[in-house]
Q: What sequence folds into this?
């Protein structure tokens, strides 16, 4: 009976719609952060070490922000306006399927944005390394998953645009306070503590050394554990809220 | 499992929505059965609890109390194989606006575990069946309301279900589209499928349904075949007299409907009543129908 796992079928559904919007997506999520990076590069005349510092930070940040945004808007639309979740549940899918597929989808396509920035940014800065990119990806992926799951927690309680758009400014703050631009130690201790609450921070903390082929097992263990724990907590919360919302 | 042949059995089925603004008891301990291969109409005013009942059948709403079984299995314990045999046409279209018309059917079919090779044939067949072939490449937003409804019904048929639950399938459709849907539903019934539908069109219910369940305020008011209900609740003849109403008409139950008054007259007196109507008066003489029963049972007051 079962031919393909149902979350995969959902992912296929998402890919059908996505392929039609690929150029816009690439423009928005790859080109725009790239322009920022380019601006920084020009304005501050980044040297090699600074570039090696910035590129992985931008990868994680761009991917996770894209995951968050596409969740709070895309998943909100599917839940409220389009009634898609309800229609999928009527077609034998479970709340787990719906949640997993939407989050995986939002996170994966955002991951491509991160990869795109890594490739283009590395090329622009003259420090393109394929091994580095490859090793940076797990941090990018996990941070995106956590960001998308957090977005789902918000969406599960939202009824309209205004319920989610209030979280948009947070993205800008996270951009600054996740360690994209400067090492954590540059900030006061209270701020440092706040920074550790963000998935993007932990993503950067592993992806940056990984990108520069300097990742140690200890660092990897700590930050991957935190990211996985965040994913677990957000998943449980999102599942609970979404079930309550969908199954009345 | 029971020896009961019923496809759906509801016993003491209750649903209370809990909300901050106060609890709503939408379904109040109803009992009903649906036999396989029949069409059952769930009729009632707005807010009666029809969609809630259908939601419980689909597992989208959890019963607060009572039992509800389909194929002899409680709805909460239905296996995937059993759920694949059930389809829903929801009250509000929830077609996928990101996909084309044919993709809507194709992807939905995949959810039910149907092979691509099967779907490649079935999707065009269904589009043809619902007269949507020309629109197969269009986006949902490019369809009219009636086309969307037809597509929603086509989508519900993609898994070739044994039980088809239709929540107001023809609301907002033009007469041609309604007739097409009636034809299709009657054909489906002939192939042995079980239909459970709601509608606010009494003529539709009378045409399609073998069994009618009238509900209001979450309670079952009565049930039976359309014929039984008419016989039981209203006299057989209705004289729809345009105002002004002639004087000296025999006294019968009447109902003011604005520009005219309905007189309910029993079979024995119908001929005499007609003779008593002055020649100049304008009127329409018709047999009593389900609409008369509906108004009789649920009253005239406007709902929510
Ligand atoms: N999710 C919900 N939360 C709270 N109350 C609800 C919910 N859904 C329905 N109700 C209430 O339950 C009652 C029955 O609603 P339901 O949608 O089942 O009616 P219906 O018979 O389908 O009406 P209609 O003909 O208008 O579609 C109504 O009083 C409604 O306000
Ligand atoms: Mg309803």
A:
């Amino acid at each position: 009976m079962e031919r393909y796992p149902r979350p995969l079928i959902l992912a296929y559904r998402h890919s059908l719609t996505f392929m039609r919007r690929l150029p816009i997506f690439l423009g928005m999520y790859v080109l725009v952060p790239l322009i920022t990076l380019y601006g920084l590069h020009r304005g501050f005349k980044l040297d090699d070490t600074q570039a090696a510092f910035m590129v992985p930070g931008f990868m994680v940040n761009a991917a996770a922000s894209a995951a968050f945004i596409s969740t709070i808007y895309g998943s909100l639309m599917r839940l409220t306006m389009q009634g898609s979740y309800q229609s999928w549940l009527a077609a034998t899918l479970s709340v787990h399927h719906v949640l997993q597929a939407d989050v995986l989808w939002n996170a994966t396509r955002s991951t491509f944005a991160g990869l795109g920035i890594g490739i283009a940014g590395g090329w622009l800065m003259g420090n393109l390394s394929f091994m580095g990119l490859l090793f940076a990806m797990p941090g990018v992926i996990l941070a995106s998953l956590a960001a998308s799951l957090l977005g789902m927690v918000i969406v599960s309680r939202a009824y309209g645009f205004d319920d989610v758009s209030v979280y948009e400014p947070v993205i800008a703050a996270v951009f600054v306070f996740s360690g994209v631009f400067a090492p954590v130690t540059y900030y006061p201790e209270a701020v440092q503590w706040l920074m550790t609450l963000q998935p993007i921070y932990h993503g950067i903390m592993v992806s940056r050394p990984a990108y520069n082929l300097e990742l140690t097992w200890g660092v990897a263990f700590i930050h991957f554990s935190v990211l996985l724990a965040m994913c677990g907590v957000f998943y449980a919360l999102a599942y609970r809220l979404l079930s309550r919302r969908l199954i009345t | 499992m029971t020896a009961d042949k019923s496809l759906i059995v509801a016993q003491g089925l209750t649903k209370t929505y809990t909300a901050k603004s106060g609890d709503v008891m939408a379904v109040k301990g109803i009992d009903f059965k649906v036999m396989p291969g029949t069409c059952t109409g769930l009729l009632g005013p707005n807010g009666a609890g029809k969609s809630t009942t259908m939601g419980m059948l689909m597992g989208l709403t959890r019963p607060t109390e009572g039992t509800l079984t389909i194929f002899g299995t409680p709805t909460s314990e239905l296996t995937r194989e059993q759920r694949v045999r059930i389809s829903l046409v929801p009250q509000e279209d929830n077609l996928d606006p990101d996909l084309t018309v044919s993709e809507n059917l194709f992807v939905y079919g995949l959810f039910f575990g149907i092979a691509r090779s099967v779907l490649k044939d079935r999707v065009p067949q269904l589009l043809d069946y619902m007269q949507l072939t020309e629109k197969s490449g269009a986006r949902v937003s490019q369809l009219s309301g009636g086309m969307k409804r037809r597509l929603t019904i086509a989508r519900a048929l993609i898994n070739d279900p044994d039980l088809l639950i239709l929540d107001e399938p023809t609301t907002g459709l033009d007469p041609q589209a309604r007739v097409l849907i009636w034809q299709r539903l009657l054909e489906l019934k002939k192939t042995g499928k079980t239909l459970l539908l709601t509608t606010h069109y009494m003529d539709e219910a009378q045409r399609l349904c073998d069994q009618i369940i009238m509900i209001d305020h979450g309670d079952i008011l009565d049930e039976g075949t359309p014929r039984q209900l008419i016989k039981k609740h209203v006299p057989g003849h209705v004289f729809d007299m345009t105002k002004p109403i002639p004087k000296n008409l025999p006294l019968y139950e009447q109902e003011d409907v604005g520009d005219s008054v309905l007189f309910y007259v029993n079979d024995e007196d119908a001929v005499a009543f007609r003779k008593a109507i002055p020649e100049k008066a304008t009127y329409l003489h018709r047999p009593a129908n389900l609409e008369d029963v509906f108004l009789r049972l649920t009253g005239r007051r406007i709902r929510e």
Residues B 50-51, 91, 167 surround magnesium ion (ligand 2) (CB under 6 Å). The mean pLDDT of chain A is 87.
